[in-house]
Fold this protein.
Amino acid sequence: MREKLLSPALLAVLLLVSGCSVQKIDKTRAAETGVKNVILFIGDGMGTSHVYAAMSTSKKPLVLESFPFTGFSKTYSYNGYVTDSGAGGTAIACGVKTNNGMIGTGPDSAAVTSITEIAHRNGLATGVLSTSAVTHATPASFVAHSSGRGNYEDIAKDFLNGTVNVFIGGGEDHFRNRNDNDDLTLKLRQQGYDVVYSLADLKKSESKKIAGLLAKEHMPSVAEGRKGILPEMVKKAIDVLSRDEAGFFLMVEGSMIDWGAHEKNLEYAVSELIDMDEAIGVAKKFAEKNGETLIVVTADHETGGLSLTGGSIPGKLVKGEFIESGSHTGVMVPIFSFGPGAARFSGIHENTFFLNEFVDLLKLKK
Ligand code: MG
Ligand code: ZN
């Protein structure tokens, strides 16, 4: 019988040990869940075929393959079986299905609250990173509210609302080469942001608030010379945000997996996915050391209807075919998770479920 093994002495030791640890952990906000920080990666357009194409051709195993939990997300939007990145990003960021093309609003165009805003209100540090302009649909969904994803200059203005401590990506023109001639970078500086325009200056920055505008519009692709920069951005963001005792929420987008697939260019999509995987590796290294960090990786939708029709595992080759249009499709997209709370992300979920899980795991007040 099991009970017989619990001698009074052992029981006393167990009580002592558990008593001590409860006292210690109770001091932190997320005592029950063990989650102090959340890092969310979104591979735009990243379906399971894209992931497997990268697995098949990568020189080394993907970091993603080491994640203990996997699941699926249903990506349909309020008004479409097939979503765009506006509605897809809004569902993940705000927990609300909305119309295609909308950013941080419900289908009625009224603003809905994002996880970034909730985290900020609860005193956490927050970050948003992308390889596209930070004003583009996916990162914008975590910061801005607009019924039209193309309103880049309005969306840029929403970065002045103080929600995000660190944002890094492209989009300089939307901040200081605007039709209204307003220079938003001056206002960001007044708010205490260090505004930087190069990776070198980003690395040197010692500010707790950073606006990194590393390209006029979008950053170059990996093939055009961006290789390794997203991992550097992630490293810097974690360095800055993890100084905050209250914990942090960080969203990182691999924006161009989608663009490669739209172009029906498998090499483009795969190189972008492998680059994001390296950035995930940076986050995982931190999470392993830190012990209180949950990493979730997912996509807003699949792009290109990619099927893998041949290849060679020993030869590290893959042959892919895209649908004629190269458009988004309605298939479920994968979820990978690592760290405390990661088991919650296995199974099949609506794309609106992430927000409530993050809120619950971080013990935030909505
Ligand atoms: Mg995107
Ligand atoms: Zn797309």
Notes: Residues 44, 85, 132, 136-138, 253, 255, 258 surround magnesium ion (ligand 1) (CB under 6 Å). The chain has 14 helices and 14 strands. Residues 1-27 have pLDDT under 50 and may be disordered. Residues 1-33 form one domain.
